[in-house]
Structures are given as C-alpha cells and as structure tokens.
Amino acid sequence: MSQVTLGGGCFWCLEAVYQRLPGIERIISGYAGGHIPNPTYAEVCRGESGHAEVVDVKFNPQLITLDQLFTVFFQAHDPTTLNRQGSDIGPQYRSIILYRDDAQLQAAKTAMSRVQRFYDLSLVTELSPLTHFYAAEREHHDYFNRHRSQPYCQWVIQPKLSKLQLAE
Prior knowledge:
There is one protein chain. The protein has a single domain (2-163), classed as Peptide Methionine Sulfoxide Reductase, Chain A. It contains 6 helices and 8 strands. The protein has helices at 11-19, 41-45, 66-76, 102-116, 143-146, 151-163, and strands at 2-8, 24-32, 52-59, 84-85, 88-89, 95-99, 126-129, 133-135. Strands 7-6-1-3-2-8 form a 6-stranded mixed β-sheet, with helices on one face. Helix 4 links the parallel strand 6 and strand 7. Helix 1 packs across helix 3 (66-76), helix 1 (11-19) crosses helix 6 and helix 3 (66-76) crosses helix 4 (102-116). The protein is globular.
C-alpha cells in the first residue's frame, strides 16, 4: 500500500471524490502543513494554524497509480485560485500536495507540469514535505455519505461528483 496527502479545498469534497475510486483502501480527513500541534477544526477554520484541510489517502498502486490520483486531484478543484475553492475562503482551503519522499515530489511536479498546459493562469498548488498529519474530529469523517441532504453536500459536493462522473 502507498499513501498520499492532498488538500484542495474542503476535505469533505476530496474525501467524497476519492471514496468513489477503485484501489482506494482508506481515506482520513485531517489537517497538515501548519505549525500548531494537534489542531482543532475551529483553529484551522480561523486560518491561523497554518494547516490546510487535507485527506490522507491510502491506496493500492497496482489498482490506481499516484499519477491517476494526481489527475483526479487537479480535476476535483481549481489549482489556480490561492487560498480559495468556491465559497470556501482562507489558507486552510489552499491547494497543496504534501509529499512523503522524493519520488512523490517528482511525480507531483510532473503532474503539475502536465496540468499547467490546460490553464491560462499559473498553478498555485503548494508542494511541501509531510511532517505531521492530524486526523480531523470524528464528525468530519465520511461526511458526504452521512449528510447527503445537507445544503453544502447538495450544492457543492454532489455537483463535483457529477462533473467527475462519480455520482451514484
């Protein structure tokens, strides 16, 4: 098994996207890339912790490659908007790839170079080494599947799944 940690806006969105892909073994919503140990959702939402909302994805590379995960990542959010995805605004919603080793860093750079050709604006996706991952509070896990009728799920997550042809 392999792991990658990604942030592209609200972690509920990325979690719902990656849950629907073959080869995904486990997804944990959480926080990374900041300076406060053991942050809470409230601290991250205030934008003062330095952390981004991220998903830690454990996957089987024989069923889905890291490059395929990066392709979906760049399709699932706008990597050209700094600290914002739709109405979610703040540094906690930044586009970020937290790499575990040089191979992941090089794969991320290759994917970014390929994706940049499709945008007029420059990618703002941050590349940082993963130093710590903090799991989010329990109520944030499997959020879309447990709260499909909530407005955010219907207006933000469901259209994203439909666009990516991952809707059920």
